[in-house]
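In the current project phase, we have settled on a layout for protein records. One protein thus recorded is set out beneath this paragraph:
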Amino acid sequence: MNNEFFEALAQLCKERGIAVSDMVEKIRAAIVIAVKKDYEVEDDNVLVEINPETGKFTVSLVRDVVEEVENPHTQMTLEEAHAIRKTYALGDRVVTPLKTKEFGRIAAQTAKHVIRQGIREAERSLQYSEMQSKAHEIVSGTVTSIDPVRGIVALDLGKGGNAILPKGEQVPGEEFYEGQHLQVYVVDVIVTDRGPKVMISRTHPGLVKRMFEMEVPEIFDGTVEIKAISREAGARTKIAVASKDPNVDPQGACIGVHGSRVSKIVEALNGEKIDVIPWSEDITQFIAAALSPAKVLKVELLEGDTRSCRVTVPDAQLSLAIGNKGQNARLCARLTGYNIDIRPESGYYGEE
């Protein structure tokens, strides 16, 4: 019977992807609870030994040898103890194995319930560990349903369980359909009573960052470093890069021959524009580069305010520097961390 139990347990753990040792401990705890309830005893009166390697599975009551028995489940007389072993004395503790049928129907049902609960908890823990390792990574999911009213999209992440892509984390203009395979960025994994809750996004800057890390070997091996990134999903992303090797051009590495590397990322993002900016320790140079594709004539850091600057651009490039609805200026400000006042060349010198 024990062999059948352990074989079934091993098969169950294999199917559910759970460690046998974890499940054995859950079962042991379940049986202790069941025996305590059925015999109205405490933890130290119950001994459960389960060893899959030897096939040993015993449940015992631990009773004290006393002169007068008040509770037969926790105590026994010296005469009863001597029937087991002559060397027992008053105050000793005697371990008496129980027969399986003595567990009782209620105890067995309780153990079964707790074992099932233990399996669910172990699966949730395994699922959480698996998804936690994918935090800040890109994962693939399959669209299982779409809520036309709230606009949310439900995804099946495989072993990672299910996740919801909220409307606010979707790229404007993207359309979804059931069965569609979708790449999403795992922002975080949160523990809940119902298991791990995976927070996913299609708009997070981390999605573009991870795409570059996967596409550009120089970033993957650490030669090129992503120093900053700002994004308006579906429209434009600015990414600042630097090289630890003076012989490696960080911009060229990210863009690739004839734009091959960056074009793959642009295609994966459905045409979102990407500006690869050279990072510089000189903040004025960095700000000038970050306003690309506009040409910058001058960058002045404002006195008394360490996070503001004034930028001068040719008159004909003012609208390009600001961008559609201020987009280029906003992305530049987020990338550099500076408030930027953009002025045309004529207007600037006219004020002087």
